[in-house]
Amino acid sequence: MSEDVRPEEHHDHVHGHTHPTGLKGWLHEDFVPHSHDVTDSIDDALEASNEGVRAVKVSLVVLGITAAAQLGIVAISGSVALLADTIHNFSDALTAVPLWIAFVLGRRAATTRYTHGYGRAEDLAGLFIVAMIALSAVVAGVESIRRLADPQPLDNLGWVMAAGVVGFAGNEAVAVYRMRVGRRIGSAALVADGVHARTDGFTSLAVVLGVVGVWAGFPIADPLVGLLITAAILILLWGTARDVGRRLLDGIDPDLTHRARRALESEPGIVGVEDVRLRWTGHRLAVQARLLLPAGTTVAGADRTAAAAEHAVRRALPAVGTVDLTVTAAANAPITGR
Predict the structure, then answer these.
(1) Which residue, among 308, 315, 317, has the nearest Cα to 287 in the 3D structure?
(2) Whose CA, among 13, 32, 155, 158, lies 20 to 30 Å from 284?
(3) Regions of the chain short of the pLDDT cut 50
(4) Which of 251, 255, 256 is nearest to 317 (CA)?
């Protein structure tokens, strides 16, 4: 079955699992975010890729402005430590470039070598982002332990706090934006990049809380908050690595499989559905299934039933790319040519 783009259709945001509510739900969403296989997704593949690229561009601009503001504070305060943190934030912003390249690659048509296209480049970019989050956790942890073992006085506390507030605000805004777009287009890698921005924001927040602790007469608060932030980054890392790893292993939300099966079984003329398989390739969902038709079904009738079944799947699921349906007569009876 060929890909049939239907951008005018909308899908219900339905999950096969539940989330905590209230304060616990807020903490769960902030500290264990996930990509949500079932999304209110954009159906058109090119439009989804374009929105992903747009999200990367906008976030790079916002992070660039954030870094420039921090650089201005560095120039005023003369703090070498702030300069190092600003350079770190700027370099972390550039991790979005591989994702940008992956979105552009994903637009390319399949070839005789890459017969499924280049959508997997997006998942590889997600793996790179997971590695960067892990590196952020290591750097934050080592720096916190070093400051516990060898406490260093904080200078220019007002400027340090200002830089931390700017860094946290800029990174958190980018994190929310990236994750929202990533969930809408079905991109686990873009969600992971949003988590990466959030980890950088947490690092800046640690600076702010550390300054508050020093002002309150607890100089050890700075490294202790750093260790707390390290733990938060590790929790974020777990959820992100889980989602990206599932994509690489062709893991799928079971609810999507159930919805695909129900959509196929509800079509008139189908007496059974077997071997239902779904997989994500980047932010597009590929569907395979074998349809059992009544004995004596004609070839023309089988084609009509398969076409109707494909449309049913596209209505039931988000971000559907290719749909590959094979038809077989029930009890191995032949499908006639009449």
Answers:
(1) 317
(2) 32
(3) 1-19, 22-28, 34-43, 338
(4) 256
Smallest CA-to-CA distance from 177 within 74, 63, 25, 11 is with 63
**Do residues 73 and 166 make contact, with C-beta atoms less than 8 angstroms apart?**
yes
SS3 198: helix
DSSP per-residue string spanning 109-153: PP-SSSTT-STHHHHHHHHHHHHHHHHHHHHHHHHHHHHHHS--P
Q: What are phi and psi of 114, to 5 degrees?
A: -105, 80
* Three-class secondary structure of residue 226 per DSSP: helix
C-alpha closest to that of 223 among 141, 137, 148: 148
Q: Which of 324, 323, 310, 285 is nearest to 43 (CA)?
A: 285
pTM value is: 0.69
Pick the CATH number of 254-332 from 3.30.70.1350, 1.10.240.10, 3.40.190.150, 3.30.70.270: 3.30.70.1350
* Rounded Cα–Cα distance for residues 74 and 132 (Å): 25
How far is it, in rounded angstroms, from Cα 229 to Cα 222?
Answer: 11
pLDDT digits (tens, 9 = 90+) for 143-195: 888 878 887 666 677 888 888 898 899 999 999 999 999 888 888 888 888 88
Return the structure tokens found at 270.
């189908």
Q: How far apart are CA 84 and CA 76, in angstroms?
A: 15
Instruction: Pick the closest to residue 284 from 180, 138, 186, 169 (CA basis).
Output: 186
> Could you confirm whether domain 22-248 is CATH 3.40.50.620?
no
> Whose structure tokens read 């970019």?
125
Per the CB < 8 A criterion, the answer to whether 193 and 174 are in contact is no
Domain with CATH 1.20.1510.10 in the chain: 22-248
List the 272-281 sheet strands across, edge first.
272-281, 284-293, 320-329
